[in-house]
Structures are given as structure tokens and as C-alpha cells.
Amino acid sequence: MKILVLGWEYPPFNSGGLGVACHYLTKYLSRKHKIILVLPRKMKIDFPYGKLIFAEDFLVQRFSGKILEGYKTSWHLNYSSQLIEQVMLYREAIKIICQHFDFDIIHAHDWLTYPAGIEAKNITKKPLIIHVHATEFDRGGGQFVNSAIFHIEKEGLDKADQAIAVSHFTKDKIIRHYQINPEKIAVVHNGIENCFQKKVQNSLMNKILNKKIVIFVGRFTIQKGPDYFLKAAKKTLEYYKDVVFVMSGAGDMERYLIEEVARSGLADKVFFVGFLRDDDLNKLYQSADLFVMPSVSEPFGITTLEAMANGTPALISKQSGVNEVVKHVLKVDFWDIDEMTNKILAVLKYESLKNTLSQNCYRECSKISWADAAEKIHNIYLKFVPAMIYA
Amino acid sequence: MVLTLYFKVHQPYRLKKYPFFAIGKDDLYFEGVVDRYNQTNESIFKKVADKCYWPATKLILKLIQKYPQFKVNYSLSGIFLEQAQLYDPAIIDLFKLLVKTGQVEILGETYYHSLAFLYSLDEFSSQIKLQEETLHKYFHIKPKVFSNTEAAYCDDIGLFLSKMGYKGIITEGADKILGWRSANFVYHHPQTKNFKILLKNYRLSDDIAFRFSERSWVEYPLTADKFASWIFTLDGNSDVVNLCMDYETLGEHQWKDTGIFEFFEHLIPEILKNKNITFYTFSEVIERIKPVAPINVPYYITWADTERDLSAWQENDMQKEALKLLFELKKELDEVKDEKLLNNWRRLQTSDHFYYMCTKWFADGDVHKYFNPYESPYEAFINFMNIYQDLKLRLNKLKSRKEDLN
How far is Cα A324 from Cα B369, in angstroms, rounded to an integer? Predict the structure, then answer.
């Protein structure tokens, strides 16, 4: 079948898991289907999995300069009305794209592409599948909900023929907050590519410091819980001195976090290393004694699989989707700083715990793949074959 | 042909949820909530007593009184008896009645159901003697046959137990030590004919213990008649068939509604109908049945899992480190001679704590999960080590106090 895939970000121009998922799912689905991937803005991307088109090419108006930043650091836009403008611009382009291209199914990734997906369905009457990588209730950490975005999500979910949630955790949120029929929502967990991570030249960092390393990898936003990481770091340091905490990422809480570190007198214990990718990121994982994902609300949490693929023991929030698929990690409620600290201390103190987690998490992670995720989506596509014949 | 029935009765002292921050502040390791279902050691014991200890023991007593030819072997771990004394002492009275009939033999073992034999024979021996004293106190008996923790056995252990006065041991009829030979005979230690090795017939034992209520099993449902007929087919080419299982098979692993109690109630008379089959206690087996050959067991066997080895307790790095660190405390504990510390330390040796740390089949969520009070083997390790650190701290404090006095 021909699939019109509506994406927003794509590696290396991505800010997180959305781009990664879009990349690997199109890669594996392209083995059984013809893919037409639409991205908003023109950029240099190697795309061997089908046809890649840019919305921009079908418009007189250009996407705003900020959206380029948006690919890397979409949090700077703070989901403002400006971002919604771009989303609507993307929808305009889809109207024209629908006249030029033929396809059987529309697959829209996350809220940024829902209006375009609905438009494509209205024009072509083809089935619309929306893929929920996060909801507004995750991004705001349950505290802030942008009602304009909520309504875009709600309309997408209502009008879709099928929704795919990245976890049961997310499916439950969709049912609870958007009142969607559970039967319309399939769960397809994310995967990890090529678990056999090559050993990167080990970072000199821990050798120079001769200290244990605990890391945070993710956006510095309320959703990812970087402030809980900092609280646990503070508490851990009361009991264990030879450790440093490294935070990789960027985001609207960065300033607050840096100031908080300074205020607490932890400037020599907590380090910010910016947004890392590829080998730099693997290097960070591999030099770490423990990866912590203290997310307040995590639809999936691909970083956990990345850590595991690097053999790095992980301590993850139970409020996450990845919690449903992995067992050989430590788990904690994100708000329970005492328990988080208890577990961090144990990994720091006992090499045996670290080793056992490391061996087992690597083994477990090697059984999780994007190919399996793509296979499940393929089976969802097949559900729509008869409908097309009778159409 | 002879048939034996052996029940292992044991209940660990589980550890309470003990965070790092409690170290140095809390030495009540076994009080309060001990698992993820908000249970305490007391509530767990009472639950198992209700489902298994009471109905099972009443049934066995009834069968014993009804059929004078019926014999049963038991092992009752010291910490099981200790908890029974604390939470439901009438159970002990019931066992006393059983022993008085003369148709029941109680086996020797380590008081703490420990793995001490792996790390300190001195400690192993102390715990065996403690168990002997306990059995003497309650039942006025001296055990002659041994049952080690999880049926763990090797040649060295045999020799050691022989020197302690034991006449034999019951262990696993593991294929890897038997080879072409059958578990249904009596064997002896390669170095001493005075130490007999009795082997569990694991196929028939596990048919009851594990497969009884398994609906996907081709033999389901297992009736007393059918099981007895399997036993009868062995008559003529076997000397003794040893059926060994956890006591909790009755009512806890196999719930009452599976019909497990009715199964036993019908099985005993069904078997006794056959005049060629006799029930023996293990001591009777050892006294009356000639061993056919020596059997070499150069490495440890157990009755656990398909591997029949110690890997469920000491395979991964966590288990090895926890065990090693725990037994390293022995020397200092011997020096300070503090009863409470010694008792706490020994309760930590109970094999169950290390079993909870097993990661082998964690992902599959099987039998290991059912018995695990922790969410994961990693939690089990972390909790154990926090308590270990507190114990060590108390030990060091006591030691320096004693040194100051000197």
C-alpha cells in the first residue's frame, strides 16, 4: 500500500523521540509499503525509504525562521500561537499535496500534523491513522494544558479511523482526557535500533574525575522531571561524595536548573553538557554508572532503551510507557525522592548490582526492536484493506 | 516395594522495607510490612497456616490414625517452629500428636534454612545442632536422617554429616548424577557405607507438586487411582520410591479447590490396597533396604529448577556479593558474642533472601515471581544490603565498645 506519512521532525533535525520513531518506523514499513514522507521545512536529509517531500515546496509562504530552531529546540517556542500558525501552514500545503500524490492510508505523527491529516482525509476520503507520541497532559506535567493544542488533539482523535498510542500509559490518558473509544486505540510500543552498540572510546571524563557518574538525558522541561533529578542528586551527595551528576539536554527549565545548582552549592557536582546525539550521546551513556529518567509523565521514554543498549543500568519513573516493556531496570515513583536516592546509592555502592543490571538490561533490550513495532503497524494497515476495496 | 512421603515445612522471616536512611536507626528488620502486598511475617504465617498447615496436618493425622501402615517424613525448619510458637502455637501441638503416633519421622536440617554449608562448616554445624536441640525440646527426638536446604548435596557434605552422626540424607534424584541408574534404589556414600543417599523421584513428586492443577498437562486431571497405578508399575524394578515436596503443595501452591486434599485422602488407601507396597519412614528405609551401589556427587545438586544446581541462589553478582559479605561477618560476630546480633545475622542467612535476588527467569514471570515479596530481584538485593549495612554498623559499634572496655 501507499502510505502518506505526515512527520514534523526527523534526525538529525529532531528534539527527541518523535523524530527517532518517525525515522525507524518509516524505515521498516518501507519494506512492505510505499512511503511518502512529508516534512514541513526543506532540509538536507538522506531518505532512502521512499519519497520525501517538503510542505514548503508547495507554498508561497515560508515557514518561519523559528521553526528551524523548532526542529532542534521546539521548546523555545513554548507551544505558542506561533507554532500553531506553522501547523496550519503545514495543513495548507497538504491540500495541494493531495492533488499531486496518490495514497491509500494517512499516518500522522503527533498533534503538529493532525490538522493536516484531517484535511487529507476530508479531501481524499482515505483512512486516517494518528500516532500519539505524547499528549498535552504529558507535556505540561499534568499542570499546564494549552487548550488550543488540546482541541487540536481532541479533533484529531475524534476524526481518526484509528489511533496508535506508544504505551498503555498513553492509551489510558487518551481514554480519560479525550473520551475516545478504547477499541479505536491500538498500543504499539517504541523500539530500539541495533542494540549492539559499538563500544565508543571511553570518555576520559570519569578517569580524570575518578568519580561515579549519574546521568540525566532529556529535555529540561517539567514533563521530564529534571528538578526531581536535582533533588535526588542533592540528597545522594549527603551520603556519597565520590559522584558527579551530568545533565544532557536543553529546554525552558535550563536557567532555573543552573541557578538551583548554584544556590545549592553543587556547582562542582552537577554538570550541564548540552544536547548530545550519536557517538557523543553513546559515550555519555557508556561512561555513566547509572541513567536516571525521573519523568513526571512519559508516554514512552526511548532514552531508557538507549541506556540499556549501551549496557547502562537505568532507574526509571513508573509513570512511563517504557515501564511496561522492561523489567531489568530499577523503578520508582517520580515524586519519591527518598526511594530514588535509596536506589541511586545502592548502584553507587555495590558493583555487583551495577553489573547484574548492566548484563541483564543489555540482554533484555536486544529483544526489543523497531522492526517488531513496524510489524504491528503493518497489521493495523491491513485492517483498512477491505474498506478500500468497497470504497 | 517401599513408598516414602516427605514434606518440607519452612517459612522464612521476610525482611521489612528498609531504605538506606534507616541504617543506624532501626534494628527491627523483621517487623512491619515485609512485602508489596502490605503483609507482615505474622499475617503471611497465619494465611499459610489457614490454607495449608492446619488442613494439611489434620488430614495427615487423620490418615495416620486410620491407616497404621501409613508413614510420613517431615522437616520443620527452626524458624518455622519459632514463628509457629509466636503466631499459632497450637500447630506445634498438632505436630507433637503426629510424632507421638510413631508413624512420623522428623529430619535434621539447619535451623535457619541457610546456605551456611557453602561458606562455613563451623556455622553449618552450629545451626544443625541448634535444630537438634529444638527438635528435642518440642518432640523429644534426635534426628537420624538429614534434609539440607533445598536438598543441596555433594560428597563432602555427606562425609561431614556422617561424622555428625547422621545415617543418611534425602536429596534430588538428579539425572546428571544418576546417569543410566534409577532414583528408586538406596545408594551409599563412596567413602562410607554407613551414610545412605536417598533420592527423590522428581517425576512423580512434581506430578503432584507442580502439575497437579495444570490444565494443559496431558494427564490432567490427576486422580488418586491414576497416580497409584503409576506407582504400581514400578513394583518389581524398584526398591523405594521417594515422593518429596514442599508442604505448601497442600493448600497453598495447589489450592484447596483443585482437590489436592481429596487426592491425598484417596491416594493412601488406594496404595495400601496393593499388598506389595509398604510405607516407610526414611530411617526404616536406611535400616531395612540394602544399598545397591555407591553414588558419586562431586558437585552440588539441589532440587531447584531444571538445572538442579545452586544457581537460583548464587548465580548473579548480587547474590555472590551479598552471600560473601554476610559470611565475612562471622569472625567478628564470634568475637563480640552478642545473642541478638547473632540471631539477626543468622536470619539473614535464610536461603529465601538470595532466591528473591535471582534474575534467571525474572522476565518470564514464573514460579520465582509467585514467591517473591519484592517487585524485582534488584529491590531484593538493595533491601537486603541496607539491612546488612545496619547489622554491620551495630557489630562494629559493639566491637569498639568492647575494645574500649578491655
Answer: 17
